[in-house]
Design goal:
Layout (H helix, E strand, L loop, with lengths): L24 H16 L4 E3 L9 E4 L11 E12 L2 E5 L9 E5 L2 E7 L5 E7 H14 L10 H16 L4
Antiparallel strand pairs: 1-2, 2-3, 3-6, 4-5, 6-7
The protein binds nickel (II) ion.
Length: about 170
Amino acid sequence: MILKIVKYPDPVLSQPGEPVTEFNAELRKLADDLFDTTYASQGIGLAAPQVGVSKRVTVIDLSMGKDPKDKLVLVNPEIIFSEGKQYEEEGCLSFPDIREKVVRHAKVCIRAQDLHGKWFEMDGEELMSRCMQHEIDHLDGMLFIFRMSALKRDLNLRKIRKMQREGKW
Ligand code: NI
């Protein structure tokens, strides 16, 4: 089911998600809906707070639905190791039409639970690393606009306010 994506500045985006404790059908449905919603928006990842559900769940699929092996569900994820720096352009489905370069770790290792509650570790580099950091930020109530330089952030906040006035946001 395709869900409605909430846009900045909806308060749910700025609050930390609740840890998941029940690994049940409801959680599996949420993950399925997050994938459906990501694909419908041509995204590569989506976090539960972006559909108004304040839980620590996110999905990533760099293949954008082309390869089922790429479907990744992260429940209660955390970064346990990071190194290096990268500076590449990012977007966010909660900020339509905003793209900006953001500093991220080049590599990360994350620890997360799967839909059955089983813990696993996974390394990410380049785009995967960036996507993991962006989505885990969402679960902490952190948005990519606040990872930009102050100058770029103010520029983009002004752009958003203008779009809001024009009814385009
Ligand atoms: Ni995002």
